[in-house]
Amino acid sequence: MQLPIGTFFNIILILIGGAIGLLFKNSLSQKINDIIFQVIALFAIVLGIKMVVPAEGEIIILIATLLGTIIGYKLNLQQRFDGLANQIKNLFGLKKKGFSEGLIFAFILFCVGPVTILGALNEGLESDRTLIYTKSIMDGVTSIFLCSAMGYGVIFSTIPMLIFQGGITVLAIYIAPFLDDFARNAISGLGGLMLFALALNMLKLKKISLENMLPAIPLVIIFSYIYNNFLI
User: Fold this and answer.
1) SS (HEC) of 104-164
2) What value does the CA radius of gyration of the chain take, rounded to a whole number of Å?
3) Which of these, 218, 203, 216, 191, lies nearest to 106 by C-alpha position?
4) Reduced to 3 states, what is the DSSP secondary structure of residue 55?
5) Beta-strand runs (E) in 73-115
6) Which H/E stretch holds residue 182?
7) What is the mean predicted confidence (pLDDT) over 120-142?
8) How far apart are CA 94 and CA 153, in angstroms?
9) In angstroms, rounded to a whole number, what is the distance separating the alpha carbons of residues 122 and 50?
10) Are 40 and 145 in contact (CB under 8 A)?
11) Which of 16, 150, 152 lies closest to 90 in space, CA to CA?
């Protein structure tokens, strides 16, 4: 079993970048922070479109998103997530709004993409951390601006990152067969869709529950494997 050293390094850089971002945030006016927030939302739209357009398996993404969102709704994931977020805020004495949005946004941006999956697999299968170290540096820099705009939730996104990204590394030998190129493209497309939806939330154009959509991530992997190996 390979320890997720790359993920630990990734988390450390995000924590450092996040701390810098929080200091940066306190030195700026609310107007400037609002502008940064809006620019990040526009960036999320562009990145989301860029991830969705080349994605394969559009029907797989659609079905996984529909079923995953229904499952998330039935499990009350949004309410559970909000309750957990409030407990964390109370535990650490955090008063800022947008904690959940920052956590979900950062998790999707940092983790739901082909670079994350390939980097974690390379570490788990070949002990090659080149890609995940490169990703970590980019995440660290990005976290400066994310924390400045969205607050502490970005820092706490490292918890699901450890589970998701670190889990891929630890279990790489077992899950690699399920994460072929087709599945990675489908996951990237789903991530782009979720980023686009989250950007609509950030710009207050539409309220979409990203928490309820989270079950779509494992479903798109399962459906991609079934489709690619048994239906074509």
Assistant:
1) HHHHHHHHCCHHHHHHHHHHHHHCCCHHHHHHHHHHHHHHHHHHHHHCCHHHHCHHHHHHH
2) 17
3) 191
4) coil
5) none
6) helix 181-202
7) 93
8) 10
9) 24
10) yes
11) 152
List pLDDT tens digits, range 137-178. 999 999 998 998 888 899 999 999 999 999 999 999 998 888
Q: Which residues contact 209 (CB under 8 A, 6 or more apart)?
A: 69, 72, 73, 77, 78
Q: Token pair for residue 71? A: 């499952």
Can you say whether the dihedral through the CA atoms of 167, 171, 177, 181 is positive or negative?
Answer: positive
CA distance 50 to 109: 13
Q: Residue 99's CB: how many other CB atoms inside 10 A?
A: 21
Structure tokens at 49: 């479109």
Q: At residue 115, what is the residue type? A: V
Asked if residues 42 and 199 have their Cβ atoms less than 8 Å apart, the reply is yes
As a whole number of angstroms, the distance between CA 86 and CA 91 comes to 8
Mean pLDDT value across residues 38-63: 88
Give the span between the Cα atoms of 120 and 101, in whole angstroms: 25
Q: Token pair 């309820």 is at which residue?
A: 212
Instruction: Note the pTM of the prediction, 2 decimals.
Output: 0.85
